[in-house]
Every structure is written in C-alpha cells, then in structure tokens.
C-alpha cells in the first residue's frame, strides 16, 4: 500500500518495499527512486511497461496523526522500542559541554515527538554495522545534530566544528 503525504509525494510502507524486493522488482525500486508524484510514477510504469499498480490513498486526517501511524508501523525489535537512548548518548559525553549539548538537543527531539526516531536510527545503525554495510560520513543538516553523531548516523562531531543543532530542525 502506498499513500501520499501533504506534498503529494509517494510514501511506500516498509512492508511493501520488502515485498517488492522479495519479488525481484528492482525496476520498481529504481523507478520509485526517481519519482515523487503519482503522475510521474504512472508515466514511468507506462514507459517501462511495468504492471505494478499500487493502491494509493491520501491521508484524510492531520499530518501529525499520519506521521505517528507511520512511526508506529516501523519494524523495530522490542528491545529498541524501550532502548534507553538518552543514557546511551550520555555515557559517551565526557565533558560538561557535551552533556549540555546532549540535554538541549534531546529536549528538542522530545518536544517534537522524535524519540522513537532516535531509537529507530540506533537500530538502523546497529543493523548496518552488524551486516558490514558501509555508511557515508554524513550529509546535509543532519551533521549539525550531536545526538545523531553519538548514535553513529554520521561521523561529524558537531561540537568540534561548532555546528548549531537548530540547523537540523529547520
């Protein structure tokens, strides 16, 4: 099942992606990578004669509820759902400056309801490491987040380079 977000971008569930990969639908994956709207997706399907019609429904409720539903449907083992992410990050902070930055940034993640995202990112990074999958150094505004650095999402120490974490939340 695919849905549209408020920008009319296609959102495909994790289960749908896994199902398509198991079916060997690499063409579908390459097509989805380059399409952002239903019209463009349908154009690519017709162009490549792909018979991958997907039911699309537009969320009829507020985007906050829609986003919450997506977060609740992530595959994540129970041990990560209850993972003490703050304590994990705090153990890596050896100066008052780092602890202060962690606290401020963690408050921002909490206020935005993004703690489940941090736990999922920890799970994701652990899976990448366990399977010897190389990740990049970091890109975009995510490198401004010290917490994402501590979790291992990127390799840029935002305190060392004096990056303002508020850039990540813009």
Please provide a written account of the structure.
This protein is mainly α and 170 residues long. The protein folds into 2 domains: 2-72, no CATH class; 78-167, no CATH class. The protein has 9 helices and 3 strands. The protein has helices at 14-22, 26-33, 38-47, 63-72, 78-81, 85-90, 96-111, 115-130, 146-151, and strands at 2-4, 10-12, 56-57. A 3-stranded mixed sheet has the order 2-1-3. β1 and β2 form a beta hairpin. 15% of the residues are buried. Residues 26-36 and 53-61 have low confidence and may be disordered.
Shape: globular
Q: Indicate the percent of residues in helices.
A: 40-55%
Class per helix and strand makeup: mainly alpha
When the domains are counted, the total is 2
Instruction: Report mean pLDDT, rounded to a whole number.
Output: 76
The fraction of residues in strands falls at under 5%
Count of distinct strands: 3
């Amino acid at each position: 099942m695919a849905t549209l977000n408020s920008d009319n971008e296609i959102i495909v569930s994790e289960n749908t992606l896994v199902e398509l990969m198991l079916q060997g639908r690499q063409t579908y994956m390459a097509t989805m990578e380059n399409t952002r709207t239903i019209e463009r997706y349908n154009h690519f399907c017709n162009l490549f004669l792909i018979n991958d019609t997907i039911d699309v429904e537009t969320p009829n409720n507020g985007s906050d509820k829609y986003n919450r539903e997506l977060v609740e449907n992530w595959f994540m083992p129970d041990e990560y759902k209850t993972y003490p992410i703050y304590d994990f990050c705090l153990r890596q902070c050896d100066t008052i400056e780092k602890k202060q930055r962690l606290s401020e940034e963690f408050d921002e993640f909490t206020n935005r309801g993004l703690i489940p995202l941090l736990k999922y990112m920890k799970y994701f990074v652990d899976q990448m490491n366990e399977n010897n999958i190389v990740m990049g150094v970091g890109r975009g505004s995510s490198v401004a987040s010290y917490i994402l650095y501590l979790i291992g999402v990127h390799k840029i120490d935002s305190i060392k380079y004096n990056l303002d974490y508020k850039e990540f939340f813009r």
